[in-house]
Amino acid sequence: MPRTLLPLALLATLSTVAFGQDSVEETALYLRRVKTPIVIDGMLDEPGWFSGQPARDFWEYFPSDTAQAPVQTEIYMAYDDAFLYVGAICHSVGQDYIIPSLRRDFRAGGNDNITFIFDTFNDRTNAFVFGMNPYGVTREALIANGGQVSGQDFDESWDNKWRGASSMQEGYWSCELAIPFSAIRFQQGTREWNFNSYRFDMQSNTRSTWTRIPQNQSITNLAFMGKMYWEEPLSSSSGNLSVIPYLTGGFSQDFEEGDGQADYQFNAGGDAKVAVTSGLNLDLTINPDFSQVEVDQQVINLDRFEVRFPERRQFFLENADLFGNFGFADINPFFSRRIGVAQDTATGLNVQNPIYGGARLSGKLDNNWRIGLLSMQASPDRENGLPAFNYSIAAVQRKLFSRSNLGAIFVNKQAFGKQDSSELYASFNRIAGLDYNLASSDNRWNGKAFYHRAFTPEQLDRQFAHGARLEYRVRKFGLMWQHQQVGANYHADAGFIRRQGYFSINPQATLFFYPAGGPMNQHQLSVESEVLWTPGYGRTDHRYELSWEGNFRNTAELRARLRNEYTFLLEGFDPTRTDSDTLPGLQGYHYSSVEFEYESDRRPKFSFSVNPQVGEFFNGYRYGMEGSLTYRYQPYGAIQLNVNYNYLDLPINRTSIFLIGPRIDLTFSRSLFLTVFLQYNDQLENININTRLQWRFAPVSDFFLVYTDNYYAEPFGVRNRSLVAKATYWLNL
């Protein structure tokens, strides 16, 4: 057997031996069909709510996980032909609820809310999420990869059309939800789903879950779920059609490359969503508008490699993990943000590559099989030397054992038409890959192993990437091993690859402590190392890190890290990225640093975070400070100031680099929002002002008015500006 495939075989063997059975104790909820539709007013006063068996007896997750929650929650469900109805009664010790804003898709941390998680295919790998707070603000999200890492596997960008309302009463608040079956995917004929719910109660300072979850696991972890049983088998929701047209108009002025004359633009297009079956969805798009209505938050990059920003475009979000979670985050064969973006052959800078349209078929065939097919056609752009590109991706995933799966992917980026004489673009770039994802029923064991192969016209050698990760976590400790290798000629033009030509290992060990009293709730002490070898040069990088993290009972967090690093530069490098002098290449650098991070309790009106860093940096020193200050004007929004400052004292240069980003986020109601975002990035010598007005005039239907200005920092002057109006409307047919 080729040694690159050994990790796949090893993880599969471990799964067979240890993870075939589900060991999580079951809790159950029963729901019945109602003859009369329930009125969604937040009151839970219809008899139909109480015909089944509710979910009660929530367990405390924070500050401890050994007792039932001090304030309890009751969840009731019912259904008819069109809707799943969900109601909750959230008992409380008062009505001093914390609601940072009225904006949809709020984050759970730092405010009162309840969240409902539906694993509709009982695979404990993917789930739909719906939530509400006492003011009736709603949110929805998707969970992938078993929800092992709350932020990483939790996608709040997904939207869908449903209804909800809440009500505040003496000693409790309640909410009601009506979720159309057309909004979610499920297996036809099933009589059971996996279900869990978690609640944040700020007055008692507790987080609780219906199914008990150990504190060292994510609160969104799908390994720990109860059951919801239907009175009758569910029928198919196939045939449902949603059409989402858009109109845009506006103007832009370019003072950097042009004369500043206004360039007026108008555009129209849209998306459609077709429920082919109850588990399979077809997404179509014509002339998509992939412009971002919210600007990416800029960062200071002192590293040698590209920064990865998350995907926010709605077309790519549902079942995004099926296409985008192959490999590791820095060895990713398909990264959807590459679609619609190409490189100018003259300048080497990214430019927008307009797209004619595309289609995506994705979802579940049954409880064991998932498939994904995607094809997007981009237009040529002769002004920027771009040929027409087609992006086609095929992915398939087969569930194995209780929560593991085997997946395969094929990615093809194909160029058509006459190309620029620079021959920057190959006629095609293709990736074929195989991934095995390991997850035990109790989530003690997690891991991944993969092997990917690139195919290009040159037919070079070493066009491969492979890696493996295995993690074991119990209450008192955790162990992790990861290694990865990327061939020198492995290129994934439609993916995200930070670097080529190396082999690395990354072991880690963590101890968990749970104090019985005092201000601290949990400690964890970690030792981690990462060592990288480059063929022909030997060991070219290492990072040894000792870290401690403490969680306070008031939800504040404190972290400390001691880090030793070694970097062998293969070529000259300017860490300031300001076109100044470069550090000499073909030379090794040893340096050590210390870092602290504190995040305050987010319940008060004022909250803050601070992250000082000090130590050696290559052959000099770095002094850094990153932080934020937030004032909450409940419930109408917040004002936040983000700052990142670095002073680099290097023999080649002494310079300060800083980024400041004030942000005003106002929510006048649950349908009218204003965001003003100012960013001054000293590294890019750019001042950016982004003002966005959003009016949600109907469910999942919006009008945006976005004004953007970019200025030179020194000497001060206009680079470009634009004003764009965009309207979208979600129509169910």
Share of residues in helices: under 10%
The assigned CATH architecture of the domain at 34-230 is Sandwich
What integer value in Å does the Rg equal?
A: 26 Å
Please tell me the overall pLDDT. Answer: 90
- Return the CATH class of the domain at 34-230: Mainly Beta
Which class of secondary structure composition applies to the elements? Answer: mainly beta
CATH topology of the domain at 34-230: Immunoglobulin-like
Span of the ends, CA to CA: 53 Å
Strand content: over 45%
- The low-confidence parts are 16-24
Shape annotation: globular
Number of β-strand runs: 43
- Main β-sheet, in a few words? 26 strands, antiparallel
Number of helices: 2
Overview of the molecule:
The chain has 733 residues and is an all-beta fold. The protein has a domain at 34-230: Immunoglobulin-like, CATH 2.60.40. The chain has two helices and 43 strands. The strands form four sheets. The protein has a 26-stranded antiparallel sheet that branches. Strands 1, 2, 3, 4, 5, 6, 7, 8, 9, 10, 11, 12 and 13 form a 13-stranded mixed sheet that branches. A two-stranded antiparallel sheet has the order 17-28. Strand 14 (241-254) and strand 15 form a beta hairpin. The protein is globular.
